[in-house]
Design brief:
Rossmann fold, 508 residues, two-stranded antiparallel ribbon, Type-B_Carboxylest/Lipase, 13-stranded mixed sheet, Carboxylic ester hydrolase, 18% strand, 2 domains, Carboxylesterase_B_AS, alpha/beta, EC 3.1.1.-
Length: 508
């Protein structure tokens, strides 16, 4: 019932398109979407941080904070959606802000379930402010939605001996992870003022955001900050040892023209040096698809022995997240763009597989020939399974003995751009109800595409929302992962055999 006093203030002081709410942090003025009956509060600072230092919470805001516009994005070179013309606000190192969407109705006695989203972008780009992640549609169905920024690239994940020495905990390389923890603490302190239940928080994320969810499941400091988790096209293996991070950090500092121990030099570097402009041509994009695998990206969480002590998958297997219901899944053709740069013959396919999995080329050819129309298509499926689908499903297998766990597979392609397949992130506009945001709009330009996608959109939203409310999906035919089945989300969702045994034998 902690929300009731603040909510009376909110409901009593809403007029026009402005809404006011009184929180422990201070008084906020937000906006109101009358059609959806959803109030929104944007750009709320949850913390501030000096470069390569732990974030400090913003406990109080003076006066009435104007929360009607998104705050700055964290410095970055951009992500795939922004390269295609998607919106991103101006960038600033003072970027640790968040947004909240809440239903404009009296909450249930226990408060609304809370869904906290972590955006993707390879830990180097993205923001909660992207229109793709607008929480209005989900909030209109009876949940409070939160999205937040965290530091990216070198600002979020640089590890250096000198930074470790100056840190009071002896940590380095996890500044983005510390931001995530601080955002979750903000939720615990303040979300009741928005009608949310701080004891019913679901953490969900896609791509690097899904990887972050698994990392937080393994982080001791995150215990009790959320109660359910959803990993979308993420996985648990994308962390680095501190030794790897320190070695890379020293080389990176030299590339920046600074001694590794000269923190003053590094902190003087302008953002243009840290995030130089990139070639956005189609040719350059295809080269990045071919050469740039996320596993090789140096900017990601580190096993620093302080905030992250175990490999996340190991932590799940050992029951460190026992009691946290988990929903995991991916799309059927995550890396479908690899077809354009794939091998032209089966000998080339075997050679590429051997480079990734020595000794498995012949076996992989046998497995992928049976389900692929060409060597290039087989390579795209192999990369989908190796990089995203199997690591994500493996998280469910690891958690299944310790908590209710459910698996899914999205296998839907837009009739407008069917050749793209069920690519990485295709479920996001359907889940958030943001089909008309750019660049997602390109998938739904025809009436056929909209009508074809509606059953899937309704199913995705219903399952995620019910999982947030109860810890279980809504569909009665969706058994737990350990039963050997998953939910297939196609034009007509239904139960399918768990894809993990069939598609992931090579990668266990």
């Amino acid at each position: 019932m902690r929300w009731i006093g603040a909510l009376v203030v909110l409901l009593g002081m809403a007029w026009g398109h402005s809404v006011f709410v009184l929180t422990p942090q201070g008084r906020l003025q937000g906006g109101y979407n009358q059609q959806a009956r959803v109030a929104y509060f944007l750009g709320i600072p949850y913390a501030r941080a000096e470069r390569w230092k732990a974030p400090q919470p913003v406990m109080r805001l003076e006066g009435v904070f104007q929360a009607t516009q998104p705050g700055p994005a964290c410095p970055q070179r951009g992500v795939f959606t922004t390269r295609l013309g998607g919106y991103l606000p101006p960038q600033s190192e003072d970027c640790l802000n968040l947004g909240v969407w809440m239903p404009m109705a009296t909450p249930p006695p226990e408060g609304y379930p809370v869904m906290v989203f972590i955006h993707g972008g390879s830990y180097t780009g993205g923001s909660w402010t992207e229109p793709l992640y607008d929480g209005t549609s989900l909030a209109s169905q009876g949940v409070v939605v939160v999205g937040f920024n965290y530091r990216l690239g070198s600002l979020g994940w640089l590890a250096l001996p000198a930074l470790r020495h100056e840190d009071p905990h002896g940590s380095t390389g996890n500044y983005g992870l510390l931001d995530m923890l601080e955002a979750l603490r903000w939720v615990q302190r303040n979300i009741a003022a928005f009608g949310g239940n701080p004891e019913n928080v679901t953490l969900f994320g896609q791509s690097a955001g899904g990887m972050a969810v698994c990392t937080l499941l393994a982080a001791p400091a995150a215990r009790g900050l959320f109660h359910k988790a959803i990993i979308q096209s993420g996985g648990c293996g994308y962390v680095r040892t501190l030794e790897q991070g320190l070695a890379w950090g020293v080389r990176w500092a030299a590339q920046m023209g600074c001694e590794a121990g000269d923190l003053a030099c590094l902190r003087r570097l302008p953002l243009e040096r840290l995030f130089p402009p990139e070639d956005r041509s189609i040719g350059a994009l295809l080269q990045r698809v071919e050469a740039g695998e996320f596993a090789e990206v140096p900017w990601k969480p580190h096993l620093d022995g302080v905030w992250l002590k175990k490999l996340p998958l190991q932590a799940l297997r050992e029951g460190d997240a026992a009691g946290v219901p988990l929903l995991v899944g991916a799309t059927a053709q995550e890396t479908w763009g690899e077809r354009f740069v794939g091998p032209s013959d089966w000998a080339g396919f075997v050679k590429r597989v051997e480079e990734k999995l020595p000794g498995q080329g012949a076996r992989a050819e046998q497995l992928y020939r049976a389900r692929s129309a060409s060597p290039a298509e087989a390579w795209a499926y192999f990369q989908t399974d190796r990089i995203l689908l199997c690591p994500t499903l493996a998280a469910g297998v690891a958690q299944a003995p310790h908590a209710p766990t459910y698996s899914y597979l999205v296998d839907w392609a837009s009739p407008v751009l069917e050749g793209l397949g069920s690519f990485h992130g295709i479920e996001l506009p359907l889940l958030f109800g943001t089909e008309t945001s750019w660049p997602a709009l390109a998938l739904f330009l025809t009436q056929e595409a909209l009508e074809n996608s509606r059953p899937l959109a309704r199913a995705l939203q219903a399952q995620w929302l019910n999982f947030a409310r109860t810890g279980a999906p809504f569909l009665l035919g969706w058994p737990e992962t350990r039963a050997g089945y998953a939910m297939g989300f196609s034009a007509q969702p239904g139960r399918i055999p768990d894809p993990y045994p069939e598609r992931c034998g090579l990668f266990r």
